[in-house]
Amino acid sequence: MNILNIIEEIEKVDTEIYDRINPRRKAMKSFMNIGSKVALSALPLALGSMFNRAYGQNAGTVVGVLQFALTLEYLEAEFYDKGLTQNAALIPAGPGRSAITTIGQHEAAHVKFLQDTIKALSATPVAKPSFDFTAKGAFADVFSNYDTFLAVAQAFEDTGVRAYKGQAGNLKGNGAVLTAALNIHSVEARHASHIRQMRKARGANIKPWITLNQSAIGAAVDNVYAGEEITQQAKVQIAGINGFAISTAAASESFDEPLTQQQVLAIVGPFVM
What is the C-alpha to C-alpha distance for residues 225 and 210, in angstroms, rounded to an integer? Predict the structure, then answer.
């Protein structure tokens, strides 16, 4: 296969490849010169350089983010599965059990999607860790007390929302994967809101959204809400903006903050054996 054939194959995969390279004419002139000056054995390096310029990152970064997301989805999927099967009396029959069943199915679908996507990128999905859903004893009755179960579910879902948001920028070089990750992110947000509504229905003093950095769960997962008290966006103070009666609480509730991988790992650390 000569250099023109390779370029044609690239065009079939990504019709916008030239738009990703700046400037287009210079890039293509350089690439054509490569074809006339180097041996075919050197083309993988040339192609790798071209794709790094086009997408701004290598596949390893995307795979790393997906492996990170997969670990979180393993956590959530197994949590709901155990909640539904380990103790039949834990989740009452009715709307609550139906909701938890549906959420569990969503998380299982996320696991399968991430595993298949990682394989499609020629990588091996990370193995599922062993989990301690008591968080080293902090939630000892998580599978015997429905209120504790819902509280931990809230911590996981709120973490998931912020974790996906924190990694979106690292996926910008792969549009298809970024779109899928954002699709998961919005579903995790719906899960979080629904779990919060379920807790409120059982008497918890909680809202569907996050106010400041209040967890109302327990010290073991307070870091889930670290940074949510921020009231500035793009250096603009939202509280009292332009004379409007927007409280500090309302300003913090109006925007959801991302978490870094390091912050997320610190949160889930107690739940991993």
Answer: 8
Cα-based distances in Å from 21 to 6, 52, 175, 209: 17, 10, 15, 41
Residues 88 and 92: their CA atoms lie apart, in Å, by: 9
Contact indicator for 160, 192 with CB cutoff of 8 Å: yes
CA 189-194-198 angle, 5° bins: 150
- Distance CA(226)–CA(259), nearest Å, equals 9
Segment (H or E) for 237: strand 236-237
d(CA 220, CA 268): 10
- Tens of each residue's pLDDT in the chain, 273 residues: 544 554 454 454 444 444 444 444 444 444 444 444 444 444 444 443 443 343 334 445 899 999 999 999 999 999 999 999 999 999 999 999 999 999 999 999 999 999 999 999 999 999 999 999 999 999 999 999 999 999 999 999 999 999 999 999 999 889 999 999 999 999 999 999 999 999 999 999 888 888 888 876 888 898 999 989 999 998 999 998 888 889 998 999 899 999 999 999 999 999 999
Q: What is the number of residues in the chain?
A: 273
| 232, β-bridge pairs | 237
Q: In the beta sheet, which residues pair with residue 131? A: 272
Distance CA 199, CA 90 (A): 15
Q: What is the DSSP string of 18-76?
A: HHHSSSHHHHHHHHHHHHHHS-GGGHHHHHHHHHHHHHSS-HHHHHHHHHHHHHHHHHH
Q: How many CB atoms lie within 10 A of CB 126?
A: 17
**The model's pTM:** 0.76
Query: Helix 3-13 and helix 43-55: axis angle, to 10°?
Result: 30
